[in-house]
Design brief:
Family (chains A, B): Belongs to the ROK (NagC/XylR) family.
Number of domains of chain A: 2
InterPro entries (chains A, B): ATPase_NBD (IPR043129), Carb_Metab_Reg_Kinase/Isom (IPR051804), ROK (IPR000600), ROK_cs (IPR049874)
Helix content of chain A: 25-40%
Pfam families (chains A, B): ROK
CATH architecture of the largest domain in chain A: 2-Layer Sandwich
Shape of chain A: globular
Strand content of chain A: 15-25%
Organism (chains A, B): Virgibacillus indicus
Catalytic activity (chains A, B): D-fructose + ATP = D-fructose 6-phosphate + ADP + H(+)
Bound molecules: adenosine-5'-diphosphate, zinc ion
CATH topology of the largest domain in chain A: Nucleotidyltransferase, domain 5
Oligomer: homodimer
Number of helices of chain A: 9
Distance between the termini of chain A: 10 Å
CATH superfamily of the largest domain in chain A: ATPase, nucleotide binding domain
């Protein structure tokens, strides 16, 4: 089967052609401008490609519930050009009426791809956190992506502040929510330089302290079989090990399952899919 | 249809007979002793009652995944008599082989009942927190109870400490997790008297501050259509209003949905089912 995939991001739209095994044959990166300009290039890429289905993983917030009239519409976003843009409907117009098209958030899509082909392969549940400029979260519970009132936004949950930490937090909404305390943006504000340039052990211990709580809160809410941390900040060597260490310390044996006590190295992991996780995730949405 | 229901608690087992509409015709309360003594009385109650199905909502942790060999077995618990007790298997032995029996946690069951007949009726998702001696949580996502590695244990998630609060927390595992900061037990430790005897406004403002974060973290992870707070502590007059107030303040407009901005009184609510919510929940598990 020939499947189209779109990873719709705030800075670029990555479009690709792949198949039901998650293989990507061809792709292109299109800079995000106005919807009109951007979508023109997107459709041009897919022209004549004979795609049979199309999956779209988009920046949020976006309506992900199929039974809602605004399914696939981007909601209130600071990207004003895109506010209330009916992404799914615009794509539908360009293809035959009966083509299967599905839309979800980029992070939900990535979580789904990790469950199909990556770090959580063979499982029924997982949570995917991407720690970059911001913190995004996707989750699968009992085989289905988490939808409800909206979709997961767990990057903004509240966690406990480290007793020695007096940084006010960088989130414009909440100050010291998780994103405000542990995103790339917060690292830059707190330490005066980008994550990639920070070597100070104390900085990474603190980062791990917050990401460990992220993993604990994910475990205690979703009860996933796997917790995956991706995004630029996780490129820091050894960070994932520190997260595991603090996770064990803070959880303190509360959940008595071997998976989180003995085998934490196999429970909190980096993504199993490479740089194409986003595209593969979009593709996975129509399988 | 005649349905049996068991609400298996640490101090009592409530057994009942009801039907598929959630009506309970008859019930009995049995003090919890050893499994052998307790179950003997339980089975005696059901004898000759012609029940066609049986739902069991139990204290946890308990294996809730039907595809696991130890489905329905109580796991590591401080109630040593009950540790590893195969609750489902023992019940099965007492009834005909082909009778449908389902087991879940008491709080998951209550969440399910609230979705079927209570505060979240007609919806596909909800979260139920019970704030009593401890804090328990149940959740429904896309129509199904949350299972995975285990079941929700969100009562122990981490939240941010109030800047003026220096209580160390009462949780034996985590100190200042949610349960350690906001359960009935923590109120008693913090203020030196039981919740029911506390009138100090500051105490209830602080309680609301933590429960509001509970609601926010639930919203940002599960994205439920309804958040329900039950349990003894919620008997305090006006507490639910304070929780809503702080929820709006702390969320600060981040999720731009009318449900959580305009209609928060209808989003964060008390249970819709009366004192029989637990039993009705057990019953709902086999519908
Ligand atoms: N090797 C690294 N070590 C630590 N932080 C890094 C590293 N590489 C990138 N980052 C940080 O990751 C963030 C960018 O994350 P990324 O996921 O690539 O982007 P975005 O979230 O914008 O899509 C920046 O804050 C950057 O400083
Ligand atoms: N009216 C009330 N106001 C405040 N707290 C109350 C009230 N009634 C009961 N509580 C508190 O609720 C807790 C018991 O909760 P409950 O749900 O009844 O029991 P359990 O969790 O043991 O099943 C106690 O800490 C008690 O002080
Ligand atoms: Zn925030
Ligand atoms: Zn705890």
């Amino acid at each position: 089967m020939i499947i189209g995939a779109i990873e719709a991001g705030g800075t670029k739209f990555v479009c690709g052609i792949g198949n039901e095994h998650g293989e990507i044959f061809e792709k292109i990166s299109i800079p995000t401008r106005t919807p009109k300009e951007t979508m023109k290039d997107v459709f041009q890429f897919f022209e004549g490609k004979q795609i049979e289905r199309m999956g779209v993983g988009s920046f949020g917030p976006i309506q992900v519930s199929q039974d809602q009239p605004d399914y696939g519409t981007i909601l209130e976003t600071p990207k004003t050009d895109w506010k209330y843009f009916p992404l799914l409907d615009e794509i539908k117009k360009n293809f035959s009426d009966d083509m299967l098209i599905a839309v979800d958030t980029d992070v939900n899509a990535a979580a789904f791809a990790e469950m199909k082909w990556g770090a959580a392969k063979g499982m029924n549940s997982c949570v995917y956190f991407t720690v970059g400029t911001g913190i995004g979260a996707g989750a699968v519970v009992r085989g289905k992506l988490v939808h409800g009132l909206l979709h997961p936004e767990a990057g903004h949950m509240f966690v406990k502040r480290h007793p020695d930490d007096d940084f006010k937090g960088s989130c414009p909404y909440h100050g010291d929510c998780l994103e405000g305390l542990a995103s790339g943006t917060s690292m830059r504000e707190r330490w005066g330089k980008a994550g990639v340039d920070i070597q100070d052990k104390a900085a990474w211990d603190l980062e791990a302290y917050y990401l460990a709580q992220t993993a604990i809160n994910a475990l205690l809410t979703y009860s996933p079989e796997k917790i995956i941390f991706g995004g630029g900040v996780l490129n820091h060597p050894g960070l994932i090990d520190k997260v595991r260490e603090q996770f064990s310390k803070l959880l303190n044996g509360y959940i008595k399952k071997d998976e989180v006590i003995e085998d934490v190295d196999d429970y909190i992991v980096l993504p199993g899919l490479g740089s194409e996780a986003g595209l593969k995730g979009s593709l996975a949405l129509v399988l």
